[in-house]
User: What shape does this take?
Amino acid sequence: MLYYLKLCLFLLLVSLSSKADCLPDIEGLCIPGVTITEDTQVDITEEDKGTEIVTTTTTTVTTTTTTVTNEDSGDILDGDNDYVTTTKEGDMDYDWGGQGPANIPSGNSCYGLGADKCAQITGGGNSTSTMGVPGMGTTFINTIDISDLKIDNGGKVKYTIEVDKQDAQDRIYMHITGLNGTSQVFSGTDILSESGVSTGYQSYNGSFDFGGVLKSLKIEIGGRDINLAVGPLFDDVTVNVFYNVINTIVEQQITSVEEIVYLNIFDPVEIEFATEVIEFNDITVDEAGDVEFAPIESQPEEVSYETVELEIQEFELDIPEPEVASVEIEAEMELEIEMEVAQVEEAVDEQPTEEETNELDNKANEEPTPENNDTSEQKEAEVENSEEAEEPVKQPSAKEKAATKIVKKIDDKARYDESNQMKTLIVMQILGNTKTFFDTQSTIQDTNVNEYLNKVIDDPYSGLFIAEQGQIMEDIINAQY
Assistant: This one.
């Protein structure tokens, strides 16, 4: 358990240390790219069910793919982009409206800005503007709704402006405020040309970072005409909003592995039965949780006389020729015969005298001598045994051995199916050289037995047997209750 807790803590730390660099509340633009983080959690549970112990290992792999891109709104002061009307465009053909006096000159009055129209700051006052910028005499203010962009992960607002300041004592600035409804998201002011600096014609650009949600912009361009001669001139204002788009895809893969340890409490017969059920059946579980068993139908083997004969020939090639052991029966028999001959010669040399012969004859007449009979019978038995010993032991042929192997090869559980029964029968035909056994078959003619079927044999005791059987069946049924 302690090892398991350490493993989970380690995987959690790996996951936390692999966060994406671009957070939702970051200010400015994120670096575009794809960040993939993988969190692996392993849960191990153990359940003792009495008859078995089930250990379940659940591995949960959570893959988070974060894709960051930078989107561009385009110039929101261009009327073609549908953010402003013609009178609010950045080409300054019209006065946006604002604080203090202003003018829209054209031709030579725009100096380095071109012959088309431009905007001129003519106010010489010194106050704070609506956007909170001090040193203001005139302002041009433009409010733009950009909520359709659905900006919610920060970004950057970039601007460009063309300025021609003829009088070094004048001043001009650029101010932009970003809003989320009525809440201020950012506010930035750039002094384009301060009083006392001789700049003439210049092209300026700048940017302001922001984070979170941005729905609208307020653009303020202002300044002072101190000498009240030719005030600061500006034209061709552009504002683009670059914002982060973050797409996050979370994929979770859960793998469960069960390890079952059966306790030694089952009957071996039951285990063998269950093993056979699983081996010879397709087991399925339907949506309702019911278990169904479908027997596995094995493909019947095509068995013919030719296939079995070919199989026997293959087995014959694999069976080596047996080594015939030399039996020293003849030597033993010769030794026994020599011993018997020696005994007979001794008996001849020790022939009895006439007196002994007469005594022996008298004794022979009085009673039979079973010993001699036993000796003759024993000799006959020994001769028969010697003859049997001389007969060589018949060894089974290679074909018989191959046939035996084929029959033993048949599985006990499938020994009585149709194909194996046929194979066994063909093996017997091959060994008996009865290939044409079934070629000629006689047909047995059916006998008309209707005459016998129509006869009724009366049984006077049938009623008693039926009544007794009924009583026995009723007793069996009642015994169940």
Notes: The longest helix spans residues 329-349. DSSP finds ten helices and 13 strands in the chain. The radius of gyration is 59 Å.
